[in-house]
């Protein structure tokens, strides 16, 4: 459980978090927090240590990021939330699909406000662990690593053409994972409108410049 002081320290304020450098063509990434302190402990505990109860807090933060991502879009259009897939075997080793669980929790909260569909339609072909890799190596590692394995799933997704597609993850670091998920969805005719994540690494959250050279948008700001 999260102590009251730690919970009170959460900003719960969605913000744009462009990585640096920005992967070419990346749609706008939104996050709720910086990846440090209590938030980092929650993410690591949930993903790697079987502390699955953290999904409630993390799912609420992810929902905040999704709200920021679609705040300027039509409220009556459904959302299609697509979790970034785990590497092959990772879910089996953990006994738990961590990112999908967060997206499921976020979707439950968002459904009180609008129509939301959870769409775990992506799969990973396999990529090396990203730990210790720089931005260039991460991009190379992730290139071509995701796909939609089922034509039926892709067709089901395309039937939601009127929906806003949002790629969902736990942490934005270099943006290479999000960009690969975006590419795989675009390949089956489901271009995302945004990326939403719980947190971004500190040197990227609320800092740097976007792909057009504009300053990164700060807390609570809208997409330009």
TrEMBL record:
Region described as Disordered: 201-224
Name of the molecule in the record: ComF family protein
Superkingdom per UniProt: Bacteria
SUPFAM superfamilies found in the cross-reference section: PRTase-like
Provenance organism: Nocardioides ganghwensis
Family, as annotated: Belongs to the ComF/GntX family.
Family matches, as InterPro entries: ComF/GntX_DNA_util-trans, PRTase-like, PRTase_dom
Domain Phosphoribosyltransferase: 114-204
Coiled-coil boundaries: none
